[in-house]
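Hey, quick one: can you model this chain's 3D structure?
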Amino acid sequence: MSLNCAEINLILGELDLEGAFIQNVVQPSYDTIAFYTYKEGESRTVLACLAPGVCRLCETRRKVPKNDKPLRFMEFLRSRIKGSRIRSSGQIDDNRIVLWELTHGEESFKVWFRLWSGAANIVVTDQNDGILDVFFRRPKRDEVSGGHWETPEPPKPGKTWEAREFPADFTGSFNEKIDRWYAERAESLSREALLEEAARRYENRRSRLESALANLERKHASFLDADRFRHQGDLLTANLWKIKAGMDSVELEDYENGGVTIRVPLEPTLKPQENAARYYTRYKKAVSGLAELEDDIASTRRTLETLAAEFERVRSEPNPLVIQKTLRRQNTPKQQMDKKYPGLSFRVNGWLFLVGRTAAENDELLRRHVRGSDHWLHTRDWPGGYVFIKARPGKTVPLDILLDAGTLALFYSKGRRAGTADLYHTQVKYLRRAKGAPKGTVLPSNEKNVTVSLDEERLKRLETCREDQ
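Sure thing. Here's the predicted structure for all 469 residues.
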């Protein structure tokens, strides 16, 4: 558990930081930072930990490890507040927010430590509470450089907090007891809080995905009667002479279903032929939409399976640091993630596949990410994406790798519904751009042919080889 307000007051009273100088700042990990202070011949290391469930600010006598590479917030603190004098240090309204007021030459700063489990942060402001930088950047809270710090309202009167009790073998000051207590328990406490956060995120995302899946399945059911639109178009085409201008429906004999009479709705403003064409258009859209819906339904189900598997991996992970990194990766918007290649990328037995799903992705891959010796595949009679197999020095593309890449080329093409298609493949150096043609269009030469059929087992295996997820 994190420090409560009574414990924070005890710690600050023992630290007696007023008048101390900040000699150095070290950030040993993604959620912890240490301030080396000096006052009247005595040095203290003040540790601030922002990990969920173990938020604290206290003195530590343990050695603080240095990070292998410079970290952003640590470097900011070293450049701005290293050498500062702590003019005052105290808790704001028993709100588990500690304020240090600093002076550095003619400059003045404020350092706010919000020790709230799950929402902890360190914010450095100027004297007017304008934010200079923060430990964790949170735009939704306006906790970013250039933002404005708003001190939270004081807590409502209620529960009275008391300092925790320690085992009998804990000796020394309250700071020393707290430091030892967390040293022995911090890892398990942090892991427990992180697992609670992981479970909350999993349930939220699972609920959204299941709701989306239910909507897709309802829409899929409504598209299953696509043949009815085609049949109504056929009836209208066979009975155009019965349709008069301005009619909103017509009764026709259904010759395919025992001669029963059915009523076919019409658009009064359209001509008879246009009404029939309207039904054929609806039929084509329904058939096309059905294929896309089936793909979306399959993709959503795979996402649910992947989500459940990842949650189980998180639950079985003993290291809190690994859990935290996983949660951060899950919470990063896709548009902010670094992506090495446009489209999709797969790595199968050491071979890298690059898949362009759109004309723009195909063109970008051709221009910047493939070379003459790389292999190119595309469906022969269907529009679709390009698949490239990156060449490996001294190695020829094995047949099984070629079939894997061909399966992806068929899957990301309009021929997916057919289940089988011919593909041509050749090296990139034998592709020539077609002048005046749409973006990404190429004319191949020296191409060879291969026939590929979709294999569910192969597709599932390839899905586990995705690198861009």
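One thing worth noting: The radius of gyration is 33 Å.
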